[in-house]
Amino acid sequence: MRLLMISDTHVPHRARELPEQVWREVDEADLVIHAGDWVEEAVLDALRERSNVLVGVHGNNDDVAIRSRLPEVAHVEVGGLRIAVVHETGPAKGREQRCDAHFPGVDVLVFGHSHIPWDTTTPGGIRLLNPGSPTDRRRQPACTYLTATVDARGLADLRLHEVKRPGTAE
C-alpha cells in the first residue's frame, strides 16, 4: 500500500493551489494523510474527491468549517500498522517523550505545524514523521512531502520529496 503524507498546505494563503507534483502523488497513493492547516475547505473537498482514501485532521489555522469536518486526532490501521495523525506535538525538545505518553499503542505518528521535515523514533518505538509543507518552506531549503509503503515489514520505502518549482526539471 502506497502512502502520501502532507501537511500545512495553507491554500490560498501560502499558495494558490497544491502543486501538480503533489496531485500526481495523490493519484498514485492508496492512502493520503493530511496533518492539518488546510486553511481552505475547497482543498479538503478536492483531496477527498481525488484520493482513494483520505485521513486528515484540523490544524491551528483551520476555521470552524474545517474543524467541524475533521478531528483533532485521527487513527487508521494499515496492514497491521497503527497510524495516528495530529497537527501539533509541541516543541522539538521533549517531543519523543510527550508522544510516547500521549499516543500509546501507536506505531507511526504523522504530524505537522512546524513545516520542518522530521523522522525519529521515540524510546517507546513510535516512528514520528513530519512531511514538512508542499507549499510553504519557511526556513527550509525546499517545500516537501513524504511517501512510503506499508508491506509485511511495516513502514517501508520512506522518502522525503522536494517540490520542484515551476520551470525546473523534475
From TrEMBL:
Assigned protein family: Belongs to the metallophosphoesterase superfamily. YfcE family.
GO MF annotations in UniProt: hydrolase activity; metal ion binding
Pfam families xrefs: Metallophos_2
Name used for this protein in its record: Phosphoesterase
E.C. no: 3.1.4.-
Superkingdom of origin: Bacteria
The keyword Metal-binding is annotated on this UniProt entry: yes
Keywords annotated in UniProt: Metal-binding
Class of the enzyme per the UniProt entry, highest EC level: hydrolase
Source organism (scientific name): Allokutzneria albata
Cofactor(s) needed by this chain: a divalent metal cation
Residue ranges constituting the Calcineurin-like phosphoesterase domain according to the UniProt record: 1-152
